[in-house]
Structure formats: C-alpha cells, structure tokens
Amino acid sequence: MPDLDLNALLTAKEAAGYAGVSIAVICKWRDRGHLPVATDGQGDEIRDERGRPRYRLLDVAKAENATRQRGEKMARRITRRDAEQRLAA
User: Fold this and answer.
1) Count of the separate structural domains present in the chain
2) Which terminus of the chain is less hemmed in, N or C, by CB atoms within 10 Å?
C-alpha cells in the first residue's frame, strides 16, 4: 500500500471524495472554521489559477474526524434522552 502524502493539496471535489461528503459540506466546514485553506510558507492561502482554495489532506481528515465525533456524541445524547422519556411514561 502506498504511503499517503498528508500534505497533498486537494480541490474541494477531491477533499469531498476523501471525506465521503459533498462539496457543499467542505465549504461549510471551511466557513465554520473546521477546515482551513492550505497556506504557504509565508502564511498566504494556496489557491488554484481560478482562485479556488486548496486543502491539505491532513486537515480534511481532521475535520472529518471531528465532525464524526460531534455527530456520535449528539446521537448518544438523543438516544439517552429518548430512553429516559420512555422510562418516565
């Protein structure tokens, strides 16, 4: 199995494919601060020739993992609340 380059620069479409989400979700993650646009050595955002942002594979993986963990935590809370309501009835 080849090694993954965690610093690889991805388009939103590629990032969405790796994370298993839509391009719209990638944009929401970026807008909410969960997924930073890749930067160069001077701290400038890396964008393609059309001005579209690039994302590092490692940052995409971190955003996907954090989002999944938040979703699982919320699901546990909802499930627990539903069980408590059934017991109280």
Assistant:
1) 1
2) N
75 to 49, 61, 64, 79, 87: CA distances (angstroms): 41, 21, 16, 6, 18
In tens, the pLDDT along 57-80 reads 999 999 999 888 877 887 877 766
Q: How confident is the model at residue 6 (pLDDT cuts 50, 70, 90)?
A: confident
Asked whether 40 and 47 are in contact (CB, 8 A), the reply is: no
Q: Write the single-letter amino acid at 67.
A: T
Q: What is the pTM of this model?
A: 0.76
- Determine contact, residues 34/63, Cβ cutoff 8 Å: yes
The string of DSSP codes covering 13-70 is HHHHHHHTS-HHHHHHHHHTTSSPPPB-TTSPBPB-TTS-B-EEHHHHHHHHHHHHHH
- Give the CATH number for residue 14: 1.10.1660.10
Would you say residue 4 lies in a domain? no
